[in-house]
Specification:
This protein is an alpha+beta fold. The protein is about 45% helix and about 20% strand.
Length: about 150
């Protein structure tokens, strides 16, 4: 403990950088708490190093608390907007383009159950397709296949 209090400014900067690394690298900005405390710790370390506040553990902890609240108030909205800005991409699937024979009649709005590749699927289509015709998979989602009649 004496090492930390004797080198308070350096200790605060190191603790802040470790907290920032954990938040960014390991948690991927999932929570902002470590980010706010990390930034406040680094700033407090700099302030203590410059001699603006006393070289005292209580003053340093108070400064970290106040600066954490200020950092949170200033950066909450921009960070929240950054976190909410997620682009969704359609995952490609190797099954798209596969063909199989339809085991029963299929009509729009009335999916059928079909066993394909060892799994029971709900198969649907936008067109009426008769039993025994070859169909091609156009879309795959969890437990569902969308198909069209092969030409």
């Amino acid at each position: 403990m004496d090492v930390i209090t004797d080198n308070l400014a350096q200790s605060l900067v190191i603790i802040g950088l470790v907290l920032l690394a954990i938040e960014i690298l390991m948690l991927g900005f999932a929570t902002f708490i470590l980010f706010f405390v990390g930034v406040a710790s680094v700033l407090t370390g700099i302030i203590v190093g410059l001699g603006i506040i006393e070289h005292d553990l209580v003053d340093a902890l108070l400064s970290v608390g106040v600066l954490s609240a200020i950092t949170a108030a200033i950066s909450w909205k921009p960070l929240k907007m950054m976190q909410d800005n997620v682009t969704t991409t359609q995952v490609t699937n190797d099954m798209i383009g596969d063909r199989f024979l339809l085991p029963e009649d299929l009509s729009p709005g009335h999916p059928i159950k079909c066993r394909y590749s060892g799994i029971e699927w709900s198969v649907s289509s936008d067109e009426k397709i008769m039993l025994g015709l070859e169909v091609e998979i156009t879309d795959v989602s969890v437990g569902k296949l969308r198909v069209k009649q092969c030409s």
